[in-house]
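Q: For a teaching session next week I want to show students how multiple molecules come together into a single three-dimensional assembly. I've collected the sequence lines for a complex. Could you give me the predicted C-alpha coordinates for the whole thing so I can convert them for display?
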Amino acid sequence: MAAANLPVLIRRTPILPVAPQASEVGRERLFVKAENLQVTGSYKVRAAFTLIKHLSPPELNRGIVLASSGNFAQGFSYAGNWMGIHIVVIMLDRTSHFKLQETAGYGGEVFLCGDDAINRQSVVERVAKERGMVAIDTWEDRRLAIGHGTVGLEIVEDHPFLETLLVPVSSGGLAAGIATAVKELNPKVKIIGVQPERANAAYVSLRAGSVTAIDYWDSIADGLSAAQPGALPFLHIQRYLDDIVLVSDSEIAHAFRTLFARCKIVAEPAGAVAAAAYLSGKVTQDRNTVALVSGGNLSRTMAKQMFDM
Amino acid sequence: MAAANLPVLIRRTPILPVAPQASEVGRERLFVKAENLQVTGSYKVRAAFTLIKHLSPPELNRGIVLASSGNFAQGFSYAGNWMGIHIVVIMLDRTSHFKLQETAGYGGEVFLCGDDAINRQSVVERVAKERGMVAIDTWEDRRLAIGHGTVGLEIVEDHPFLETLLVPVSSGGLAAGIATAVKELNPKVKIIGVQPERANAAYVSLRAGSVTAIDYWDSIADGLSAAQPGALPFLHIQRYLDDIVLVSDSEIAHAFRTLFARCKIVAEPAGAVAAAAYLSGKVTQDRNTVALVSGGNLSRTMAKQMFDM
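A: Of course. Below is the structure for the complete assembly, covering every listed component.
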Protein backbone atom coordinates (compact mmCIF):
# COMPACT_ATOMS: atom_id res chain seq x y z
CA MET A 1 0.00 0.00 0.00
CA ALA A 2 1.02 3.57 -0.59
CA ALA A 3 0.96 4.25 3.16
CA ALA A 4 3.77 1.76 3.71
CA ASN A 5 5.93 3.66 1.24
CA LEU A 6 5.94 6.98 3.08
CA PRO A 7 9.24 8.00 4.69
CA VAL A 8 9.50 7.97 8.49
CA LEU A 9 9.47 11.77 8.47
CA ILE A 10 5.76 11.58 7.69
CA ARG A 11 3.71 11.20 10.85
CA ARG A 12 0.82 8.82 11.31
CA THR A 13 -1.55 11.49 12.56
CA PRO A 14 -4.15 10.62 15.21
CA ILE A 15 -7.92 10.39 14.84
CA LEU A 16 -9.50 12.40 17.67
CA PRO A 17 -13.13 12.40 18.86
CA VAL A 18 -14.99 15.73 18.83
CA ALA A 19 -17.72 16.38 21.40
CA PRO A 20 -19.36 19.78 20.86
CA GLN A 21 -20.37 19.75 24.56
CA ALA A 22 -18.68 18.27 27.64
CA SER A 23 -21.78 16.14 28.27
CA GLU A 24 -21.23 14.35 24.95
CA VAL A 25 -17.65 13.25 25.66
CA GLY A 26 -17.35 9.46 25.35
CA ARG A 27 -20.36 9.23 23.01
CA GLU A 28 -18.92 11.05 19.99
CA ARG A 29 -20.07 10.35 16.42
CA LEU A 30 -17.70 12.94 14.92
CA PHE A 31 -13.96 12.28 14.72
CA VAL A 32 -11.23 14.29 13.03
CA LYS A 33 -8.18 12.99 11.20
CA ALA A 34 -5.70 15.56 12.50
CA GLU A 35 -3.43 16.27 9.52
CA ASN A 36 -2.77 19.68 11.07
CA LEU A 37 -0.44 17.68 13.35
CA GLN A 38 1.44 16.43 10.27
CA VAL A 39 4.98 17.71 9.75
CA THR A 40 4.75 21.16 8.03
CA GLY A 41 1.23 21.48 9.44
CA SER A 42 -0.70 19.87 6.58
CA TYR A 43 -1.19 16.68 4.56
CA LYS A 44 0.61 18.12 1.52
CA VAL A 45 4.00 16.79 2.55
CA ARG A 46 2.76 13.25 1.85
CA ALA A 47 2.27 14.12 -1.81
CA ALA A 48 5.54 16.04 -1.98
CA PHE A 49 7.57 13.02 -0.91
CA THR A 50 5.49 10.70 -3.12
CA LEU A 51 6.16 12.85 -6.18
CA ILE A 52 9.86 13.27 -5.45
CA LYS A 53 10.21 9.50 -5.30
CA HIS A 54 8.85 9.30 -8.85
CA LEU A 55 11.39 11.75 -10.32
CA SER A 56 14.77 10.72 -11.74
CA PRO A 57 18.07 11.94 -10.22
CA PRO A 58 18.70 14.30 -13.20
CA GLU A 59 15.20 15.77 -12.77
CA LEU A 60 15.76 16.23 -9.03
CA ASN A 61 19.05 18.01 -9.78
CA ARG A 62 17.23 20.53 -11.97
CA GLY A 63 14.83 21.42 -9.14
CA ILE A 64 11.04 21.72 -9.01
CA VAL A 65 8.63 24.60 -9.71
CA LEU A 66 5.01 24.47 -8.56
CA ALA A 67 2.12 26.79 -7.66
CA SER A 68 0.63 26.76 -4.18
CA SER A 69 -1.78 28.65 -1.95
CA GLY A 70 0.57 27.90 0.94
CA ASN A 71 0.50 24.34 2.21
CA PHE A 72 1.98 22.61 -0.84
CA ALA A 73 4.64 25.34 -0.67
CA GLN A 74 5.60 24.31 2.85
CA GLY A 75 5.36 20.57 2.20
CA PHE A 76 7.52 20.73 -0.93
CA SER A 77 10.00 23.17 0.59
CA TYR A 78 10.47 20.89 3.58
CA ALA A 79 10.84 17.77 1.43
CA GLY A 80 13.21 19.60 -0.92
CA ASN A 81 15.31 20.97 1.91
CA TRP A 82 15.55 17.52 3.43
CA MET A 83 16.64 15.92 0.16
CA GLY A 84 18.74 18.75 -1.29
CA ILE A 85 16.33 19.70 -4.08
CA HIS A 86 15.78 23.32 -5.10
CA ILE A 87 12.09 24.27 -4.83
CA VAL A 88 10.50 27.38 -6.36
CA VAL A 89 6.91 28.12 -5.39
CA ILE A 90 4.64 30.41 -7.40
CA MET A 91 2.28 32.04 -4.91
CA LEU A 92 -0.55 34.56 -4.99
CA ASP A 93 0.11 38.05 -3.66
CA ARG A 94 -2.80 37.60 -1.24
CA THR A 95 -1.10 34.61 0.47
CA SER A 96 -0.88 35.16 4.22
CA HIS A 97 2.41 36.46 5.59
CA PHE A 98 2.53 33.38 7.86
CA LYS A 99 2.53 30.96 4.93
CA LEU A 100 5.12 32.98 2.98
CA GLN A 101 7.41 33.17 6.00
CA GLU A 102 7.11 29.45 6.75
CA THR A 103 7.76 28.50 3.12
CA ALA A 104 10.96 30.53 3.15
CA GLY A 105 11.80 29.08 6.56
CA TYR A 106 11.68 25.56 5.10
CA GLY A 107 14.09 26.71 2.41
CA GLY A 108 11.70 27.22 -0.50
CA GLU A 109 12.09 30.13 -2.95
CA VAL A 110 8.89 32.18 -3.16
CA PHE A 111 7.87 33.79 -6.47
CA LEU A 112 4.80 36.07 -6.23
CA CYS A 113 2.59 36.16 -9.33
CA GLY A 114 -0.31 38.52 -8.62
CA ASP A 115 -3.74 37.28 -7.61
CA ASP A 116 -4.93 35.37 -10.67
CA ALA A 117 -5.32 31.81 -9.34
CA ILE A 118 -6.33 30.28 -12.69
CA ASN A 119 -3.24 31.50 -14.58
CA ARG A 120 -0.72 30.53 -11.93
CA GLN A 121 0.19 27.40 -13.85
CA SER A 122 1.35 29.40 -16.89
CA VAL A 123 3.78 31.22 -14.59
CA VAL A 124 4.97 27.83 -13.33
CA GLU A 125 5.68 26.69 -16.91
CA ARG A 126 7.44 29.94 -17.80
CA VAL A 127 9.73 29.95 -14.74
CA ALA A 128 10.53 26.25 -15.22
CA LYS A 129 11.48 26.89 -18.85
CA GLU A 130 13.60 29.96 -18.06
CA ARG A 131 15.51 28.17 -15.34
CA GLY A 132 15.61 24.65 -16.74
CA MET A 133 13.61 23.25 -13.81
CA VAL A 134 10.87 20.60 -13.65
CA ALA A 135 7.35 22.08 -13.72
CA ILE A 136 4.73 20.31 -11.61
CA ASP A 137 1.03 20.81 -12.21
CA THR A 138 -0.41 20.25 -8.75
CA TRP A 139 -3.97 20.24 -10.11
CA GLU A 140 -3.46 17.44 -12.60
CA ASP A 141 -0.53 15.32 -11.44
CA ARG A 142 -1.64 11.75 -10.77
CA ARG A 143 1.39 11.08 -8.54
CA LEU A 144 0.23 13.74 -6.08
CA ALA A 145 -3.21 12.14 -5.82
CA ILE A 146 -1.54 8.88 -4.81
CA GLY A 147 0.18 10.73 -1.96
CA HIS A 148 -3.12 12.30 -0.89
CA GLY A 149 -4.72 8.87 -0.94
CA THR A 150 -2.53 7.71 1.95
CA VAL A 151 -4.65 9.91 4.25
CA GLY A 152 -7.68 7.86 3.24
CA LEU A 153 -5.91 4.55 3.76
CA GLU A 154 -4.97 5.51 7.31
CA ILE A 155 -8.49 6.65 8.13
CA VAL A 156 -9.98 3.35 6.94
CA GLU A 157 -7.40 1.39 8.93
CA ASP A 158 -7.77 3.42 12.13
CA HIS A 159 -11.56 3.88 12.18
CA PRO A 160 -13.14 0.52 11.31
CA PHE A 161 -16.72 1.80 11.89
CA LEU A 162 -16.40 4.72 9.49
CA GLU A 163 -19.66 5.51 7.66
CA THR A 164 -19.17 9.08 6.36
CA LEU A 165 -15.95 10.83 5.40
CA LEU A 166 -15.89 14.62 4.97
CA VAL A 167 -13.08 16.17 2.91
CA PRO A 168 -12.26 19.80 2.01
CA VAL A 169 -12.30 20.54 -1.73
CA SER A 170 -10.35 23.19 -3.64
CA SER A 171 -8.99 22.06 -7.03
CA GLY A 172 -10.12 18.58 -6.04
CA GLY A 173 -6.83 16.67 -5.90
CA LEU A 174 -7.13 15.81 -2.23
CA ALA A 175 -10.75 14.70 -2.50
CA ALA A 176 -9.97 12.69 -5.64
CA GLY A 177 -7.02 10.91 -4.05
CA ILE A 178 -8.83 10.10 -0.82
CA ALA A 179 -12.15 9.14 -2.42
CA THR A 180 -10.46 6.82 -4.89
CA ALA A 181 -8.44 5.08 -2.17
CA VAL A 182 -11.33 4.78 0.30
CA LYS A 183 -14.03 3.69 -2.17
CA GLU A 184 -11.80 0.96 -3.55
CA LEU A 185 -11.29 -0.36 -0.01
CA ASN A 186 -14.85 0.13 1.21
CA PRO A 187 -17.48 1.29 -1.31
CA LYS A 188 -20.08 1.65 1.45
CA VAL A 189 -18.35 4.67 3.00
CA LYS A 190 -20.14 7.88 2.01
CA ILE A 191 -17.60 10.52 0.91
CA ILE A 192 -18.74 14.11 0.91
CA GLY A 193 -16.70 17.09 -0.25
CA VAL A 194 -16.98 20.44 1.52
CA GLN A 195 -16.42 23.91 0.06
CA PRO A 196 -16.97 27.47 1.31
CA GLU A 197 -20.12 29.08 -0.08
CA ARG A 198 -18.17 31.63 -2.14
CA ALA A 199 -15.25 29.36 -3.11
CA ASN A 200 -17.40 26.61 -4.57
CA ALA A 201 -16.04 25.88 -8.05
CA ALA A 202 -16.12 22.08 -7.66
CA TYR A 203 -19.69 22.28 -6.33
CA VAL A 204 -20.75 24.36 -9.32
CA SER A 205 -18.90 22.06 -11.70
CA LEU A 206 -20.50 18.95 -10.19
CA ARG A 207 -23.96 20.47 -10.70
CA ALA A 208 -23.06 21.58 -14.25
CA GLY A 209 -21.60 18.19 -15.15
CA SER A 210 -18.32 19.67 -16.40
CA VAL A 211 -15.35 21.72 -15.19
CA THR A 212 -16.65 25.24 -14.63
CA ALA A 213 -14.76 28.33 -13.45
CA ILE A 214 -16.27 30.75 -10.96
CA ASP A 215 -15.73 34.48 -11.50
CA TYR A 216 -16.00 35.34 -7.79
CA TRP A 217 -13.99 34.17 -4.79
CA ASP A 218 -14.58 35.27 -1.23
CA SER A 219 -13.81 33.13 1.79
CA ILE A 220 -11.85 33.12 5.01
CA ALA A 221 -10.48 29.75 3.84
CA ASP A 222 -7.39 31.01 2.02
CA GLY A 223 -6.18 27.44 1.50
CA LEU A 224 -9.12 26.69 -0.82
CA SER A 225 -8.25 29.19 -3.51
CA ALA A 226 -9.14 27.26 -6.70
CA ALA A 227 -11.47 29.08 -9.07
CA GLN A 228 -12.09 25.81 -10.94
CA PRO A 229 -11.40 22.14 -10.28
CA GLY A 230 -8.60 20.31 -12.05
CA ALA A 231 -9.68 18.20 -15.04
CA LEU A 232 -8.31 14.89 -13.76
CA PRO A 233 -9.51 15.36 -10.15
CA PHE A 234 -12.94 16.36 -11.47
CA LEU A 235 -13.32 12.99 -13.21
CA HIS A 236 -12.61 11.22 -9.92
CA ILE A 237 -14.90 13.56 -8.00
CA GLN A 238 -17.74 12.82 -10.41
CA ARG A 239 -17.16 9.12 -10.05
CA TYR A 240 -16.38 8.72 -6.35
CA LEU A 241 -17.80 11.65 -4.38
CA ASP A 242 -21.35 11.21 -3.08
CA ASP A 243 -21.95 14.95 -2.85
CA ILE A 244 -20.41 18.36 -2.15
CA VAL A 245 -21.93 20.59 0.54
CA LEU A 246 -21.25 24.27 1.27
CA VAL A 247 -20.42 26.06 4.54
CA SER A 248 -20.39 29.75 5.45
CA ASP A 249 -17.42 31.63 6.90
CA SER A 250 -19.17 31.89 10.26
CA GLU A 251 -19.71 28.12 10.29
CA ILE A 252 -16.00 27.67 9.54
CA ALA A 253 -15.07 30.01 12.41
CA HIS A 254 -17.41 28.14 14.75
CA ALA A 255 -15.74 24.84 13.82
CA PHE A 256 -12.32 26.41 14.45
CA ARG A 257 -13.47 27.44 17.93
CA THR A 258 -14.97 24.02 18.67
CA LEU A 259 -11.76 22.25 17.66
CA PHE A 260 -9.75 24.75 19.71
CA ALA A 261 -11.82 24.57 22.88
CA ARG A 262 -12.79 20.92 22.90
CA CYS A 263 -10.02 19.07 20.99
CA LYS A 264 -7.15 21.46 21.81
CA ILE A 265 -6.05 21.52 18.18
CA VAL A 266 -5.53 24.41 15.78
CA ALA A 267 -7.20 24.18 12.37
CA GLU A 268 -6.70 26.75 9.65
CA PRO A 269 -9.97 27.87 8.00
CA ALA A 270 -9.51 25.52 5.03
CA GLY A 271 -8.76 22.76 7.52
CA ALA A 272 -11.96 23.39 9.48
CA VAL A 273 -14.50 23.25 6.63
CA ALA A 274 -15.11 19.48 6.87
CA ALA A 275 -15.78 19.61 10.61
CA ALA A 276 -17.94 22.68 9.97
CA ALA A 277 -20.18 20.68 7.61
CA TYR A 278 -20.93 18.20 10.40
CA LEU A 279 -21.21 20.69 13.26
CA SER A 280 -23.57 22.96 11.31
CA GLY A 281 -25.85 20.06 10.39
CA LYS A 282 -25.12 20.25 6.65
CA VAL A 283 -24.66 16.47 6.73
CA THR A 284 -26.51 13.92 8.85
CA GLN A 285 -25.12 13.70 12.42
CA ASP A 286 -26.25 10.15 13.18
CA ARG A 287 -23.50 8.31 11.31
CA ASN A 288 -19.93 7.56 12.39
CA THR A 289 -18.16 10.43 10.70
CA VAL A 290 -14.55 11.39 10.15
CA ALA A 291 -13.84 14.96 9.07
CA LEU A 292 -10.40 15.60 7.67
CA VAL A 293 -8.65 18.54 9.32
CA SER A 294 -6.28 19.07 6.44
CA GLY A 295 -4.03 21.75 7.91
CA GLY A 296 -3.30 24.16 10.74
CA ASN A 297 -1.22 26.87 9.11
CA LEU A 298 -2.73 30.21 10.02
CA SER A 299 -1.60 33.54 11.37
CA ARG A 300 -2.34 34.82 14.83
CA THR A 301 -4.41 37.58 13.23
CA MET A 302 -6.63 35.08 11.48
CA ALA A 303 -7.04 33.06 14.67
CA LYS A 304 -8.14 36.16 16.55
CA GLN A 305 -10.55 37.02 13.74
CA MET A 306 -12.19 33.60 14.05
CA PHE A 307 -12.47 33.93 17.84
CA ASP A 308 -14.55 37.06 17.31
CA MET A 309 -16.75 35.98 14.38
CA MET B 1 2.42 -1.69 34.94
CA ALA B 2 -0.04 0.98 35.92
CA ALA B 3 -0.36 2.06 32.29
CA ALA B 4 -1.84 -1.29 31.37
CA ASN B 5 -4.55 -0.85 34.01
CA LEU B 6 -6.03 2.34 32.60
CA PRO B 7 -9.50 2.05 31.02
CA VAL B 8 -9.85 2.37 27.25
CA LEU B 9 -11.45 5.79 27.73
CA ILE B 10 -8.00 7.12 28.60
CA ARG B 11 -6.08 8.04 25.47
CA ARG B 12 -2.46 7.22 24.80
CA THR B 13 -1.50 10.78 23.94
CA PRO B 14 1.15 11.45 21.29
CA ILE B 15 4.66 12.81 21.73
CA LEU B 16 5.14 15.63 19.22
CA PRO B 17 8.37 17.34 18.12
CA VAL B 18 8.63 21.12 18.62
CA ALA B 19 10.75 23.18 16.22
CA PRO B 20 10.79 26.86 17.23
CA GLN B 21 11.60 27.72 13.58
CA ALA B 22 10.63 26.06 10.30
CA SER B 23 14.31 25.56 9.51
CA GLU B 24 14.68 23.30 12.57
CA VAL B 25 11.91 20.87 11.62
CA GLY B 26 13.28 17.33 11.43
CA ARG B 27 16.15 18.12 13.83
CA GLU B 28 14.14 18.76 17.01
CA ARG B 29 15.59 18.19 20.49
CA LEU B 30 12.38 19.31 22.22
CA PHE B 31 9.30 17.09 22.24
CA VAL B 32 6.01 17.51 24.08
CA LYS B 33 3.89 14.81 25.66
CA ALA B 34 0.50 16.19 24.63
CA GLU B 35 -1.76 15.48 27.59
CA ASN B 36 -3.86 18.43 26.48
CA LEU B 37 -5.18 15.94 23.90
CA GLN B 38 -6.25 13.63 26.75
CA VAL B 39 -10.00 13.19 27.33
CA THR B 40 -11.22 16.16 29.46
CA GLY B 41 -8.22 18.15 28.20
CA SER B 42 -5.70 17.17 30.87
CA TYR B 43 -3.83 14.28 32.52
CA LYS B 44 -5.98 14.43 35.65
CA VAL B 45 -8.50 11.91 34.38
CA ARG B 46 -5.84 9.18 34.68
CA ALA B 47 -5.65 9.73 38.42
CA ALA B 48 -9.42 10.02 38.75
CA PHE B 49 -9.98 6.57 37.25
CA THR B 50 -7.05 5.12 39.21
CA LEU B 51 -8.48 6.38 42.50
CA ILE B 52 -12.03 5.25 41.73
CA LYS B 53 -10.73 1.74 41.11
CA HIS B 54 -9.30 1.71 44.63
CA LEU B 55 -12.60 2.65 46.34
CA SER B 56 -15.16 0.09 47.52
CA PRO B 57 -18.70 -0.03 46.08
CA PRO B 58 -20.20 1.44 49.30
CA GLU B 59 -17.69 4.30 49.16
CA LEU B 60 -18.51 4.95 45.50
CA ASN B 61 -22.22 5.04 46.38
CA ARG B 62 -21.57 7.81 48.90
CA GLY B 63 -19.90 9.99 46.27
CA ILE B 64 -16.61 11.89 46.29
CA VAL B 65 -15.64 15.41 47.38
CA LEU B 66 -12.36 17.00 46.33
CA ALA B 67 -10.75 20.41 45.78
CA SER B 68 -9.52 21.45 42.35
CA SER B 69 -8.24 24.45 40.45
CA GLY B 70 -10.11 23.12 37.41
CA ASN B 71 -8.57 20.11 35.75
CA PHE B 72 -9.07 17.56 38.52
CA ALA B 73 -12.63 18.89 38.61
CA GLN B 74 -13.16 17.99 34.97
CA GLY B 75 -11.32 14.66 35.17
CA PHE B 76 -13.25 13.48 38.23
CA SER B 77 -16.58 14.80 36.95
CA TYR B 78 -16.12 12.92 33.69
CA ALA B 79 -15.04 9.70 35.44
CA GLY B 80 -17.90 10.05 37.93
CA ASN B 81 -20.47 10.71 35.24
CA TRP B 82 -19.25 7.71 33.29
CA MET B 83 -19.45 5.40 36.32
CA GLY B 84 -22.52 6.86 38.05
CA ILE B 85 -20.66 8.41 41.00
CA HIS B 86 -21.70 11.76 42.48
CA ILE B 87 -18.78 14.22 42.42
CA VAL B 88 -18.62 17.50 44.36
CA VAL B 89 -15.71 19.83 43.58
CA ILE B 90 -14.60 22.60 45.91
CA MET B 91 -13.24 25.38 43.70
CA LEU B 92 -11.77 28.84 44.18
CA ASP B 93 -13.91 31.84 43.27
CA ARG B 94 -11.16 32.97 40.88
CA THR B 95 -11.46 29.80 38.77
CA SER B 96 -12.03 30.66 35.10
CA HIS B 97 -15.59 30.54 33.82
CA PHE B 98 -14.45 28.03 31.20
CA LYS B 99 -13.32 25.49 33.80
CA LEU B 100 -16.47 25.96 35.92
CA GLN B 101 -18.70 25.51 32.90
CA GLU B 102 -16.85 22.41 31.68
CA THR B 103 -16.93 20.83 35.15
CA ALA B 104 -20.69 21.28 35.29
CA GLY B 105 -20.92 20.02 31.71
CA TYR B 106 -19.26 16.77 32.72
CA GLY B 107 -21.86 16.42 35.49
CA GLY B 108 -19.82 17.57 38.49
CA GLU B 109 -21.35 19.69 41.28
CA VAL B 110 -19.32 22.88 41.81
CA PHE B 111 -19.00 24.35 45.33
CA LEU B 112 -17.21 27.73 45.45
CA CYS B 113 -15.17 28.39 48.60
CA GLY B 114 -13.60 31.84 48.26
CA ASP B 115 -9.99 32.32 47.18
CA ASP B 116 -8.01 30.73 50.02
CA ALA B 117 -6.15 27.90 48.28
CA ILE B 118 -4.51 26.55 51.43
CA ASN B 119 -7.74 26.09 53.37
CA ARG B 120 -9.68 24.44 50.55
CA GLN B 121 -9.11 21.03 52.06
CA SER B 122 -10.93 21.96 55.30
CA VAL B 123 -13.97 22.83 53.18
CA VAL B 124 -13.63 19.43 51.46
CA GLU B 125 -13.66 17.68 54.87
CA ARG B 126 -16.61 19.71 56.10
CA VAL B 127 -18.77 19.12 53.01
CA ALA B 128 -17.91 15.41 53.01
CA LYS B 129 -18.94 15.12 56.66
CA GLU B 130 -22.19 17.06 56.20
CA ARG B 131 -23.22 14.96 53.22
CA GLY B 132 -21.77 11.60 54.20
CA MET B 133 -19.44 11.57 51.16
CA VAL B 134 -15.84 10.40 50.73
CA ALA B 135 -13.27 13.22 51.10
CA ILE B 136 -10.23 13.03 48.84
CA ASP B 137 -7.08 14.97 49.61
CA THR B 138 -5.66 15.52 46.14
CA TRP B 139 -2.40 16.85 47.56
CA GLU B 140 -1.59 13.82 49.70
CA ASP B 141 -3.35 10.82 48.18
CA ARG B 142 -0.84 8.19 47.12
CA ARG B 143 -3.35 6.57 44.75
CA LEU B 144 -3.52 9.73 42.66
CA ALA B 145 0.26 9.83 42.30
CA ILE B 146 0.11 6.30 40.86
CA GLY B 147 -2.30 7.58 38.21
CA HIS B 148 -0.03 10.52 37.43
CA GLY B 149 2.89 8.13 37.10
CA THR B 150 1.31 6.51 34.04
CA VAL B 151 2.23 9.67 32.08
CA GLY B 152 5.87 9.04 32.91
CA LEU B 153 5.69 5.36 31.95
CA GLU B 154 4.31 6.26 28.53
CA ILE B 155 6.99 8.89 27.94
CA VAL B 156 9.79 6.43 28.74
CA GLU B 157 8.23 3.80 26.46
CA ASP B 158 7.60 6.18 23.56
CA HIS B 159 10.82 8.23 23.67
CA PRO B 160 13.72 5.82 24.15
CA PHE B 161 16.37 8.57 23.82
CA LEU B 162 14.91 10.73 26.57
CA GLU B 163 17.56 12.62 28.56
CA THR B 164 15.63 15.43 30.27
CA LEU B 165 11.99 15.49 31.35
CA LEU B 166 10.31 18.80 32.24
CA VAL B 167 7.19 18.74 34.41
CA PRO B 168 4.90 21.52 35.72
CA VAL B 169 4.74 21.73 39.52
CA SER B 170 1.92 23.03 41.69
CA SER B 171 1.27 21.03 44.89
CA GLY B 172 3.73 18.51 43.50
CA GLY B 173 1.59 15.40 43.06
CA LEU B 174 2.12 15.22 39.30
CA ALA B 175 5.87 15.75 39.53
CA ALA B 176 6.13 13.23 42.37
CA GLY B 177 4.19 10.55 40.51
CA ILE B 178 6.06 11.03 37.26
CA ALA B 179 9.52 11.39 38.81
CA THR B 180 9.08 8.28 40.92
CA ALA B 181 7.92 6.20 37.96
CA VAL B 182 10.57 7.47 35.55
CA LYS B 183 13.57 7.37 37.93
CA GLU B 184 12.78 3.79 38.90
CA LEU B 185 12.77 2.83 35.21
CA ASN B 186 15.73 4.95 34.16
CA PRO B 187 17.68 6.81 36.87
CA LYS B 188 19.79 8.58 34.24
CA VAL B 189 16.88 10.74 33.04
CA LYS B 190 17.14 14.25 34.47
CA ILE B 191 13.76 15.38 35.82
CA ILE B 192 13.23 19.10 36.29
CA GLY B 193 10.15 20.72 37.75
CA VAL B 194 8.90 24.07 36.42
CA GLN B 195 6.94 26.74 38.27
CA PRO B 196 5.88 30.31 37.49
CA GLU B 197 8.08 32.94 39.16
CA ARG B 198 5.29 34.14 41.45
CA ALA B 199 3.66 30.73 42.07
CA ASN B 200 6.81 29.01 43.25
CA ALA B 201 6.01 27.35 46.57
CA ALA B 202 7.70 24.04 45.71
CA TYR B 203 10.80 25.91 44.51
CA VAL B 204 10.96 27.88 47.76
CA SER B 205 10.35 24.70 49.78
CA LEU B 206 13.07 22.80 47.94
CA ARG B 207 15.57 25.60 48.73
CA ALA B 208 14.38 25.77 52.36
CA GLY B 209 14.55 21.99 52.79
CA SER B 210 11.00 21.76 54.14
CA VAL B 211 7.39 22.45 53.12
CA THR B 212 7.03 26.22 53.02
CA ALA B 213 3.97 28.31 52.19
CA ILE B 214 4.23 31.44 50.05
CA ASP B 215 2.12 34.47 51.03
CA TYR B 216 1.90 35.80 47.46
CA TRP B 217 0.50 34.27 44.28
CA ASP B 218 0.46 35.94 40.91
CA SER B 219 0.59 34.08 37.62
CA ILE B 220 -1.28 33.61 34.38
CA ALA B 221 -1.02 29.87 35.10
CA ASP B 222 -4.31 29.44 36.97
CA GLY B 223 -3.84 25.68 37.02
CA LEU B 224 -0.80 25.98 39.30
CA SER B 225 -2.58 27.51 42.26
CA ALA B 226 -0.84 25.77 45.19
CA ALA B 227 0.56 28.12 47.83
CA GLN B 228 2.58 25.24 49.31
CA PRO B 229 3.51 21.73 48.17
CA GLY B 230 1.80 18.67 49.66
CA ALA B 231 3.79 16.88 52.37
CA LEU B 232 3.92 13.48 50.65
CA PRO B 233 4.70 14.88 47.16
CA PHE B 234 7.40 17.06 48.70
CA LEU B 235 9.26 14.00 50.00
CA HIS B 236 9.27 12.53 46.50
CA ILE B 237 10.27 15.85 44.94
CA GLN B 238 13.24 16.12 47.33
CA ARG B 239 14.28 12.59 46.49
CA TYR B 240 13.63 12.35 42.75
CA LEU B 241 13.59 15.83 41.21
CA ASP B 242 16.94 17.13 39.96
CA ASP B 243 15.86 20.75 40.21
CA ILE B 244 13.01 23.22 39.89
CA VAL B 245 13.33 26.21 37.53
CA LEU B 246 11.12 29.29 37.25
CA VAL B 247 9.51 30.94 34.21
CA SER B 248 7.85 34.33 33.76
CA ASP B 249 4.33 34.90 32.48
CA SER B 250 5.70 36.30 29.23
CA GLU B 251 7.82 33.17 28.75
CA ILE B 252 4.67 31.09 29.32
CA ALA B 253 2.75 33.12 26.75
CA HIS B 254 5.60 32.75 24.26
CA ALA B 255 5.54 28.97 24.74
CA PHE B 256 1.75 28.98 24.22
CA ARG B 257 2.24 30.82 20.91
CA THR B 258 5.05 28.49 19.81
CA LEU B 259 2.95 25.39 20.50
CA PHE B 260 0.00 27.04 18.73
CA ALA B 261 1.86 28.16 15.61
CA ARG B 262 4.31 25.30 15.19
CA CYS B 263 2.65 22.23 16.77
CA LYS B 264 -0.99 23.23 16.16
CA ILE B 265 -1.91 22.37 19.73
CA VAL B 266 -3.55 24.44 22.46
CA ALA B 267 -1.85 24.52 25.87
CA GLU B 268 -3.32 26.29 28.87
CA PRO B 269 -0.79 28.49 30.73
CA ALA B 270 -0.12 25.81 33.37
CA GLY B 271 0.31 23.32 30.54
CA ALA B 272 2.87 25.51 28.76
CA VAL B 273 5.32 26.13 31.63
CA ALA B 274 7.47 23.06 30.95
CA ALA B 275 7.92 23.91 27.29
CA ALA B 276 8.57 27.53 28.35
CA ALA B 277 11.52 26.40 30.49
CA TYR B 278 13.18 24.85 27.44
CA LEU B 279 12.27 27.55 24.92
CA SER B 280 13.49 30.36 27.19
CA GLY B 281 16.82 28.61 27.82
CA LYS B 282 16.19 28.02 31.53
CA VAL B 283 17.41 24.46 30.96
CA THR B 284 20.09 23.22 28.60
CA GLN B 285 18.84 22.89 25.00
CA ASP B 286 21.35 20.28 23.82
CA ARG B 287 19.72 17.23 25.38
CA ASN B 288 16.79 15.15 24.12
CA THR B 289 14.01 16.75 26.11
CA VAL B 290 10.35 15.98 26.67
CA ALA B 291 8.21 18.74 28.17
CA LEU B 292 4.86 17.65 29.55
CA VAL B 293 1.98 19.73 28.22
CA SER B 294 -0.30 18.84 31.09
CA GLY B 295 -3.53 20.45 29.90
CA GLY B 296 -5.31 22.62 27.38
CA ASN B 297 -8.31 23.97 29.25
CA LEU B 298 -8.39 27.71 28.81
CA SER B 299 -10.89 30.36 27.86
CA ARG B 300 -10.88 32.25 24.59
CA THR B 301 -10.16 35.43 26.59
CA MET B 302 -7.01 33.93 28.08
CA ALA B 303 -5.87 32.68 24.67
CA LYS B 304 -6.26 36.17 23.21
CA GLN B 305 -4.38 37.62 26.16
CA MET B 306 -1.43 35.29 25.47
CA PHE B 307 -1.45 36.19 21.78
CA ASP B 308 -0.89 39.81 22.74
CA MET B 309 1.66 39.41 25.55
